[in-house]
Each structure stands twice: as structure tokens, then as C-alpha cells.
Amino acid sequence: MTRRLLNDFVKRAFYRLGYQLVPAPKWARTRKVLEHGGYRMVNWRTPDGQYDLAGYRREQELGNRAKIGQVWTSEDSLLFISRWLQNRGLAPQLIICHGTRNGFEQGVFSKFFHCEVIGTEISPTATQFPMTVQADFHEPRPEWAHRADLVYSNSLDHAYDPAKALRAWADSVKDGGVIVLEKASDSDPRGVSDLDPFGITLAELVVFLMDTLGDIACVRGLLDVPHPRDGATYHKMLVIEISRGSRWHRDGGASSRGSPLCSN
Fold first, then answer.
1. DSSP state of 125
2. What is the pLDDT of residues 25-64, one digit of tens each?
3. Which CATH number, 3.40.50.150, 3.30.360.10, 3.30.230.10, 3.40.50.880, labels domain 20-250?
């Protein structure tokens, strides 16, 4: 008991100083890690420069089956963002959730908004859960093009090519719709592994979003989750609005430093 109290005391002390004590990733990291300033990427490319998609998908399926009963987000967090969006006039007809494992997100959104909700999961276990299709979220689906009012994910850290994934997600969003990314400090650069190949700081993620989607999108909200994950130094919802008809898109886009961070 004394050791546990001491551990808790040390964690709280570091937390007040802005640090989080977390265990080293339990998932293996056998591939080269590429450093990119504010983010790190586990390299899933083969020597010829192509992505090892078979290996990546095999790793994701192993992780999915090992964690099939776990849920990273919470009902409180999903209801928080649902109410925030509803209060700003969003009445979705189609919601797409990416990397949903056991379909938890679909259930919460469906019950709140009473609309069509589809989740994607790369593992064949997708067929075991309602409102879930087996799909690689890096690949756009023509039948979803510009249809979704809301795309939600807490799984960008699972992307082998996060820019490609974000562009695919944006492709499915109608003008005026939004992408919501849920992110906490446990997906910062230190935590990368073969299973979670993309680790990025919060500040760098905002820059990355604008570099990737700045020609068609702006950040509408950077929201604190009311009940953050245990031990997290931050836990946020990022709301990105898609607007292909904006002057930023008509003028050919802009860099992250020139793209707008929209007011709420």
C-alpha cells in the first residue's frame, strides 16, 4: 500500500509540472522510427519505397483481436462532442467513424443523433459488430464521397500514412460537415509502435492538419474533454470543418501558416 501511495504521489507531482509518467509501449517496435520534429512515424515502407500493406494490416488485426473488448474513448466524451455539435446546428444524416474495433462509437452516436452511422475496422472481426464494415481507413470509398456530415476517429495514431488517411476522411465529408479527432497525450511521439505508428504532439497536429487539409478545411474547435483519461496531461476534441467552396480552396490552397484557424 505504501509503495502504491508513493507512486500516486510522484505521478501527481509530475502532472502538476506538466509531465505524464507512462509505461513504455507494450506493443513491439521492430521497424525503423522516422523523426519529423514534432512527430514520429514507424516506417512501414519496404526497401523499394512501397508500403508493406500486408504486414501493416496483419499487425493491425493482431492488435484488434488482442484488444477487442477495450474501448479507448468514453460515452461521456462522445456525448460531450455530440452536444457541442448539436448546439451549433449540426443535424447529421450520416456519420462515419474510423478504427472502431467493437463498434462502441457507432452505438453512442446512433442513439444520440438517430441517424445512419457506419464504422470502419481493418480487421475481419468487423463483421461481428453492428454498423461496422471491414475497410482500410486510408482508402476513400466512392459511395461515401461528400456524403457524411460528421467523420469521427480516435485512431489516427494507427495510420501508416496519416496525411493519406486524413485526405480520405475529408473526401467523404460534405461541404459544411466536420471531422472530429479525439486525441490525448498517450498518442504523443514517445508512444509509437508497430501497432500505433504515428505519434504527434498536440501543437504539431494542428500544423499537420493545416498542411494536409488547409486547402479545404479550417479548425473550428480545440476542446477540452470534461473527463479526461486517467493520467493524461491533455485530452482534446479537434473539430475541423470542410469547406471546398472557401476562397482558400478557390485560390489554390495555403500552407499551415497561412490557413485560417476559424473562430467558433
1. G
2. 455 568 899 998 889 999 999 999 999 999 999 999 999 9
3. 3.40.50.150
